[in-house]
Amino acid sequence: MRDSTAHTAASSLPSIIAVSALGALFGGSIAALLVVGFTEMLKALLAVVSRQNTWLLILLPLVGIALSVLVLYRLGLSEEQCLQQPRRASKWRAFPPDSARSHLSDDVVSSAGHEERFPWHLAPIRLLAILSTVGLGGPLGTEAPAAYLGVATGAALGVRWRRLVRPAAVGGGAAGVAALIGIPLVGTAYILELERRHKAPLNVERVTAALVGGLVGWLLNIWLGVNLIRLVVPKEPPHSVLQAVITALLIGVLSGSITSICGAAIYKAKAWRASPIVRLEFGGLALGVAAVMIALIASPSAAIGPGGGAITWVESATGTAAITVLVVDLLRAVATTAAAAAGGCGGLFVPFLAIGDLAGRAFAPSLAIPSDLAGAAGAAGGISGGYHLPLTAVALVLSQGGPRLAVLTCLATVVVAAFAGTWSAKLVDRILALRRTAIAKTAVLAEDPYSF
């Protein structure tokens, strides 16, 4: 097999830029179209689920996660089991030993810098798991599926065109996220920052591919007129600089801490060496209890999906007590953690947006700040502190805009949340006093404790 790294090193700078742009344009275009089509399918299925009565709204996400586990661990096979199957039939469902089959970002991170090794042949079986989890109302998101499908598309195209494999994969991942969110810089920052966890180089090839991929995804988002994720944009600024500082401190600490603890719990669940059935039993029980409580306290629609229903509820429920919003926020964090631990297949970026949004709005009445500003600041803080992607959160804040002081408040919230998230994760480690053994961790977990 020819080493494309050596080929890249020997190329001139214009040639590297041209090949990277071409690969990203090619891979990004196809990936973005696939992401838009698949996400629209998820939205249509979720819309059908959201129209059901209360008991079905609570039951269907549990059914979806059970189906996800069934697909990944019954239809999916270990490499040992594949030895007993015809090679052609087993290739599409053979998982490496000790792999976290439901966690999409692991493959993206572990293949960063070596995208030709990305196991793109597992994409069909994982898409079935995503469809059952997210489509039936599980509290997980669509951004990790978008990035995963984008990188898988680029890596699959690279089987025929080896020189384009890396830019096509990086560009595909950026294009998938940009097409989903509708912001080019968010797609670019997301894929670069995520892959830096595996120390993938920020060289001309990768940066060019990510920039072109993000632009391609954004243009397709505009051209197709898609509206896949609703972002809260602040319309009013804080009334004073002091109020802005207090807002950033309080919302940053709360949103960053809650999402970080949620992420740390998911990481611990990934390292838990229990059978898929045991995970499903405990995680499903916790998810069911959290969903029932959210339905009783807020509304059934607030209990399902990545979090859009919860934001719609808090926007419409004017005058709701801050403690009620905070309780619903904590229950959403429990539900997301339980869904991921049980074997649900989806992302955490969008759920962390919602959890951070609710955390921010809990402070809005006491701080006398606009609810949309509190929500936007909290959402950005959730991505910075919980997902540990501060540069992506900065790109989100700068791209969505708003009054200058509101933007500065959100940026300050991102910084505070980053420190609060790191501190909270370390505190959880100390309290639980859990030792990370080599047996309990895969190579990706050892290098990336935040590979959600």
Question: How much beta, percentage-wise?
Answer: under 5%
CATH-level-4 superfamily name of the largest domain: Clc chloride channel
CATH-scheme architecture of the largest domain? Orthogonal Bundle
Residue stretches low in confidence (pLDDT < 50, at least 5 long) are 1-10, 436-447
Number of strands: 2
**Helix share bin:** over 70%
CATH topology of the largest domain: Clc chloride channel
| Gross morphology | globular
Spatial gap, N to C terminus:
31 Å
CATH class of the largest domain: Mainly Alpha
- Average pLDDT, rounded to a whole number, is 85
What is the topology, as strand order, of the major beta sheet? Answer: 1-2
Secondary-structure element series: HHHEHHEHHHHHHHHHHHHHHH
Rg from Cα: 21 Å
Alpha-beta classification: mainly alpha
